[in-house]
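Cross-posted from the bioinformatics board.
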Amino acid sequence: MTNQLRVGPNTRVLVLTGAGVSAESGIPTFRASADGLWENHRIEDVASPEGFAKDPTMVWRFYSERRARAATVAPNPGHIALAKLQRDLGDRMMLVTQNVDGLHQRAGSDPVTEIHGGLYKTRCTHCEREPFEDHDLYMTEGDLPFCAECAAQNKTSLLRPHIVWFGEMLNAADLHRVTRFISNAEDLIFVAAGTSGAVYPVANLVYRAKNSGGRTVLVNADEVQNASGFQQWIRGKSGEILPTLFDIEPPV
Ligand code: OAD
């Protein structure tokens, strides 16, 4: 099959996923609607530190609804194929996702670099405590969560979703691990699946991969904004393409 990617004994595979990979599970993509709204909200209201400062109850309700919804859907064959690829390749495969829905983990992928944070993690708006796993739903003002560690020091600090909002930096250690994975590869395949290439710096990874001699492949239903970085575009649904995309050479 011409679209198959041959994975040799020294090949490293970096896969970047976006909202399109979860579309077949029933989670709407970000740029699905022409009106620029995200589930009927203006993006700046629900995905910026300013929006949170203005109305934390609304923002927490929004992410709580996303938590509740993501818990009701299941990983699709695209997620499952990537988990299998990681089992087959071990640390020769790195999975980086912009999705916060946890579906890669539920499909069995481990580790997953959640470059835009995670829906089921919460952190303090003030102290440096580690983000912690949290499946609770905060729907009303009375539900708003506060940091117990700050409270022990007589400080009142709101907790917030562990999501990278617009205007915020990505985790530097995550970015470093991704760029090191690229630069350490003798033979690299970079696959971006289900992402429109509209959000930086992640949309730049394809150029990094290409500049370091990697083969760059896009698996996407529609055209993307960083198309010039890709040598190949396999057009279609990730849940249909990913399960047969990789042809792994057996060890000699
Ligand atoms: P987008 O909604 O921008 O793009 C999803 C892409 O997936 C589009 O190009 C669709 O055509 C494509 N697509 C839809 N269904 C598909 C399918 N079944 N198979 C393959 N492709 C499909 O989502 P992202 O690129 O992930 O950031 O968005 C990037 C970031 O923008 C998100 O992580 C989020 C958002 O603002 C933060 O929350 C920080």
